[in-house]
Structures are given as C-alpha cells and as structure tokens.
Specification:
Number of helices: 9
Radius of gyration: 17 Å
Order of helices and strands: EHEEEEHHEHEHEHEHEHEH
Largest sheet: 8 strands, parallel, barrel
Oligomer: single chain
Strand content: 15-25%
Strand order of the largest sheet: 1-2-6-7-8-9-10-11
Number of strands: 11
Number of domains: 1
Shape: globular
CATH class: Alpha Beta
Helix content: 25-40%
CATH superfamily: Phosphatidylinositol (PI) phosphodiesterase
C-alpha cells in the first residue's frame, strides 16, 4: 500500500519546512514528513531547503545559530523539531543538504540527535551525496538510508544500492515504472518518489506499487487514496 508523506511538511497549507507545516502534516494524517537539514559552521542544524536565503540573497552558510534566526524567523532548528516530532509516531525522511562541500560531518551530527530522540526505527536519511549515507549505513546500520539521484545519470541503481547497503531509492516520480518498482522490491529496496502533486500521477504511483509518495498536497492525496 502506497503511503503519503508531506514534502517539507504540509506545503499546500503552510509555509514549507516550518513547525506549522510539520504539525499540519501530522494533523492531516500523513505517514510522515520529508524535510531538509543544513549544518552551519558553528554546528547548528537548521531546516531549510535552499542554499541561498531568498529574502537576503546570501548563502545560508554565512550564518550561525545565533544569526540565522534573525533572517529565517520561521525556520526551526532540527532539535526543536525533533522534540515535537519524536512524540508523533510518524516516519521522518531527512534530506541532508551538502552544497557547501565543507561540512562532511553533517551525517554524524544528524545521527547523534536522532539517537537522542530515539528515532532510529522511524527515520530514512537521504542525500544526493551517497558517500555520506554509505558512511551512515556502515557506522550506524540501524538507520535506513535512501539514495537521491537523477535517472538521467544512467547508473544501474539497483546494483549500486545492493553494493553499498542502501535501503531505498528516492527518484523523481517521472523516472519510475512498474518494472523498475518490481525489480527494486525483488532486491529488498524500497521506492520512495518525489514530488507527486496531481491526481493522475498519484494514481499511477499507487498502481505501479511505489512505497511512499512525497507530495505538496496531502489533502488531495488523502482524497485520491481514500485516507
């Protein structure tokens, strides 16, 4: 049965990646949320999607835990979110953001907080930098990890995931079909797709058997899937 996950929370209802959006996703009955985490230079973990803060046109990596709140008033710190979310019983899909190229310790920093709030069995850690998730899987095998990737790269992603112990693939929904999903499932690999926002696409993802859809529109997904 295909599950519904809120992409950056309940994005159609609230500002993305805010506590309001996360709480609304839970209220709407999503199985979980997908969100993004950056590591700042002082060790703070903040939840925001882009590398450049649109309001000021500056890199998020120019800020620290003290100054970021003045610019991103609604963006929560990762631990503040976990204090709430760890009590909900829902799945958490974390995308580790690695655009700076300098903060290779982001994986360990995120894992430490997830362990603190006992989220080991309810978290999928994903990233486009597969070295980070491979290291997490090697050092912390209790966590599930997912490979974000572009299918246009042409790699045999199933063999790749088996080689590195990756639990799930996280492709764009337009890049998957029934044969691909069946091949993944036969090899014990989950298929979690983004970002599915129309009735037609939601129906197709359910019909081909993907495990999770990440969507901006939880109410629509609930209607389509009869939740």
């Amino acid at each position: 049965m295909t599950k519904i996950m809120g992409h950056r929370g309940a994005k159609s209802e609230c500002t993305e990646n805010t506590m309001e959006a996360f709480k609304k996703a839970v209220e709407l009955g999503a199985c979980g949320i997908e969100t993004d985490v950056h590591l700042l230079y002082d060790g703070s973990l903040v939840m925001y999607h882009d590398t450049v803060i649109k309001a000021v046109g500056q890199s998020i990596y120019k800020f620290d835990g003290k100054t970021i709140g003045k610019t991103l008033k609604d963006a929560p710190f990762f631990e503040d979110m976990l204090k709430y979310y760890s009590e909900t019983g829902r799945i958490l899909n974390i995308e580790l953001k690695d655009e700076s190229g300098f903060f290779i310790e982001i994986g360990e920093a995120v894992v430490a907080l997830l362990k603190k709030y006992k989220m080991e069995d309810r978290t999928i850690i994903s990233c486009f930098n597969h070295r980070i998730i491979a290291d997490i899987k090697k050092n912390h095998p209790e966590f599930k990890v997912g490979a974000l990737y572009w299918a246009s790269n042409g790699i045999d992603i199933v063999s790749y995931c088996k080689k590195y112990g990756i639990d799930a693939v996280h492709p764009h929904f337009s890049d998957v079909d029934r044969d691909f999903v069946e091949k993944c499932h036969k090899n014990g690999i989950a298929v979690n797709v983004w970002t599915v926002n129309t009735t037609e696409d939601m129906n197709r993802m359910r019909d081909i058997g993907v495990d999770i859809i990440m969507t901006d529109n939880i109410p629509l997904a609930n209607l389509v899937y009869g939740e």
